[in-house]
From TrEMBL:
TM region positions: none
SUPFAM superfamilies (UniProt xref): NTF2-like
Residues of the SnoaL-like domain: 4-124
Domain of life: Bacteria
Protein name: Polyketide cyclase
InterPro entries assigned to the protein according to its UniProt record, in alphabetical order: NTF2-like_dom_sf, SnoaL-like
Amino acid sequence: MALTLEDRLAVTELIALHGHLVDAGELDRLDEVFTEDVGYDLSDFGQGELSGLAALREAALVLGAGNPVAHHVTNVVVEEVAPDRVRARSKGLGVMANGSCGSVTYEDTVVRVGTGVWRISHRTLRARRVPLNGLGQG
């Protein structure tokens, strides 16, 4: 079944919902974004991979005031890779309480879990630390 415009919109809104829920501290609603067994890869930040919603919630609480006060997502690209499975890439900006800002690339595997219902089953965060991914840096 081909990915419809409605599916693309649903996936894009799903990715945006993450920031709204986390910024509001509504960690009990993360099941609206992720599968119960989500893999959340923070290896690029030296933290390994979390497995499952409970681990994701716990990590957010442990980080506490170290969390961004605002998560912004942009540049969402959705690519169908199999029936009921897409790859989505997006850019994320995290604004910290002190006003500093960081950038990540989200690499998501998103699966259909019901009619018109999508959830992220795996997310990898890639830190953006150098311009052009290092190209032309010497």
